[in-house]
Amino acid sequence: MSTISFLLEGLRNLRTTGTITRSSPALCKAAIAGIDFYRARVIVELGAGDGVITRHILKRLHPEGKVIAFEVSPDLCADLRALGDDRLVVAEDSAENIRHWLDKIGAEQADHVVSAIPFAALPEALGRQIVTAARDNLREGGCYNQVHYSLKTKRYYEEAFGPVATRRVWGNLPPAWVLYCCKRK
Ligand SMILES: C[S@@+](CC[C@H](N)C(=O)[O-])C[C@H]1O[C@@H](n2cnc3c(N)ncnc32)[C@H](O)[C@@H]1O
Question: 49 in a domain, yes or no?
Fold first, then answer.
């Protein structure tokens, strides 16, 4: 999708997109920091948009790995399918349905979860449901990385995962945060 189309999609659906710009290369790199690409076989991405972070994941993903990319916008899902990578499963669905999509590919758990869902713009109950589903379906030791433009919903992750580390990414418009959570034993 072109930058102009992405901007228009963002304006049309601001409540679900939460932004009118896609993540910069610096933010994409921060979003996948800490992922053990050597061992990971199943990565779940929530709010994949047109695949800007997905491409970074696919570049480093094991040849036998899978990425399940959740996205609710049909237009953006078409862009994701156009990436044409057999390791990518496009879940045109809301992200609380992680279990269903893991079952579809025969996976017990996700090794890591990366999310850019704008929880601050979604109803709190749905946000908490998605974060809980992500935590419940993540393997122990796996990481959950969340991109945000504010720390307004940081408590969702602290309640689900315990301590959360944060990194400010200035090289993005607007400057962003990445929150790093780990599923402990
Ligand atoms: C801030 S954009 C991020 C797009 C891209 N990953 C990036 O980093 O630029 C958030 C995306 O989350 C999607 N989204 C919103 N609610 C969702 C939900 N409940 N389940 C899956 N995706 C959702 C929106 O359609 C939008 O494309």
Answer: yes
CA of 107 from ligand 1 middle (Å) equals 23
Overall domain count for the chain: 1
pTM listed for this prediction: 0.93
- Digits of tens for pLDDT over the chain (185 positions)? 666 665 556 555 555 555 658 999 999 999 999 999 999 999 999 999 999 999 999 999 999 999 999 999 999 999 999 999 999 999 999 999 999 999 999 999 999 999 999 999 999 999 999 999 999 999 999 999 999 999 999 999 999 999 999 999 999 999 999 999 999 87
User: Does 31 contact ligand 1 (Cβ within 6 A)?
Assistant: no
Residue 16 belongs to some domain of the structure: no
Does the C-beta of 142 come closer than 6 Å to ligand 1? no
Instruction: Answer whether 127 contacts ligand 1 (Cβ < 6 A).
Output: no
Residue burial 2-23, b: 16+ Cβ < 10 Å; e: rest: eeeebeebbeeeeebbbbeebb
Query: What is the span of the domain harbouring residue 112?
Result: 24-182
CA nearest 77: which of 93, 63, 62? 93
Pocket residue to mutate for ligand 1, from 7, 8, 72, most atoms within 8 A of Cβ: 72
Cβ–ligand 1 contact at 131 (below 6 Å):
no
The domain spanning residue 75 has which CATH number? Answer: 3.40.50.150
In a domain, 137, yes or no: yes
**In whole angstroms, what is the distance from residue 130 CA to residue 48 CA?**
14
